[in-house]
Amino acid sequence: MMVDAIMRFPILLLCLSTLSAQSSYDLLLKGGHVIDPKNKISAVRDVAIRDGLIATVARDIPATQARKVVDVAGLYVTPGLIDLHAHVFAGSEGKGLAGGHTSIFPDDFALRVGVTTVVDAGSSGRRNFAQFKKTVIDRARTRVLVFLNIGGSGMPGDEHEQDVNDMDAKAAADLAIANRDTIVGIKVAHYRGPDWTPVERGVEAGALANIPVMIDFGEFRPERPFQELVLKKLRPGDIYTHAFYVPVPMLDESGRLLPYLFEARKRGVLFDVGHGGAAFEFRQAVPAVKQGFPPDSISTDVHSGSINAGMKDQLNVMSKFLNMGMSLDDVVYRSTWNPARIIHREEQLGHLSVGALADIAVLRLEKGKFGFVDSWGAGMDGVQRLTGELTVSSGRVVYDLNARTRERWDRLGKYQPQGEPSWDGSRGAGRPRPLTRSK
Description:
The protein is of the alpha/beta class. It has a domain at 81-362: Metal-dependent hydrolases (TIM Barrel, Alpha-Beta Barrel). The chain has helices at 2-22, 129-137, 169-178, 197-209, 226-233, 259-267, 282-290, 314-323, 328-333, 337-342, and strands at residues 25-36, 41-50, 53-58, 66-71, 76-79, 81-86, 115-121, 143-149, 183-188, 213-215, 239-240, 270-271, 360-373, 379-393, 396-400. The strands form two sheets. Strands 1, 2, 3, 4, 5, 13, 14 and 15 form an eight-stranded mixed β-sheet that branches. Strands 6-7-8-9-10-11-12 form a seven-stranded parallel β-sheet. Strand 11 (239-240), helix 6 and strand 12 (270-271) form a beta-alpha-beta unit. The radius of gyration is 23 Å and the shape is globular. The model is unreliable at 1-21 (pLDDT under 50).
């Protein structure tokens, strides 16, 4: 017996060595059309993942080199989508968007549509950011980054949002500097007063922390013209969200885009969709896109009032721009690589470079007859629509619509729980955390 075991030992080692050599990758997505704007790839490629990172993007990677192979032929493979404007500070102890029921837990909506990173747009301020981090950010499978509200209490939906005395630029900047792994910008929103104080303090905080500022202009007033906001108050790299909201002075009486918008873009001011429940209208967006003024980033402004209305989800908003005439490559660019650049997460997010985090969306482009609704209830016909097939976050499959990663039950005999920890994050009560890397 001992002699037989000794004689078999080299063979066993050879088998283990061969298996190890064959399993160079944890997960291999084969045959999909890869769209990776950063690396200027729009072609059929295979994508291999190891240890939560992109290992190789190439033609015809041998299936024998991966522990798990998924056929994605006929589908589009993109970096994980980044929703630059979301509200996910959900809870029962706060109010409104600030820890209340108006925000939505990110895992309830994001991963199923290919969104692996959401940026909460000002739901929390310096007084409740710690609660947000503890109750949502640190528990979510979706990666959550933050625009910190210049208002100390974030967005509770009451007079707290109008209190300029609680808008402390230095305190906000100090908290952002101390939490650079999570806080990527400053948010100014919902102000109804006639003065520029919130904008000025938000920009001051952004300058102190060296991060961008996102502005939701709130109530439009003649005392603080929108043109002055984007031509004078904001810095290059700062963002105006709700770009296609009707109160934004965008078109002249003949329907032509006003020239100052192009001047603002030339200055480096960025324009984000921020669809939401009230802030996206086709009568603004369609002529803007047709006249050469697309958004810099496509985002949802998801909350309880928008998710079941005209907005629905990231892919629905992206589909609207496809049907306005933008190319799929361009729509993906404004939902992946450009948002990553805007929040200065170029190293880790928004692309499929070797060594980047393996956040991936596998999408189907459906052709047919579809309809879309804007925030004011107007409809638009469409002939194409994006849907989510598979989502990979930090190298693990976290959503699989059509069982592409699964073996048929009637071929497994008396089967045990399926999947391997190296690639499967979709089963059970475990909540694998997304990997993070400093920029």
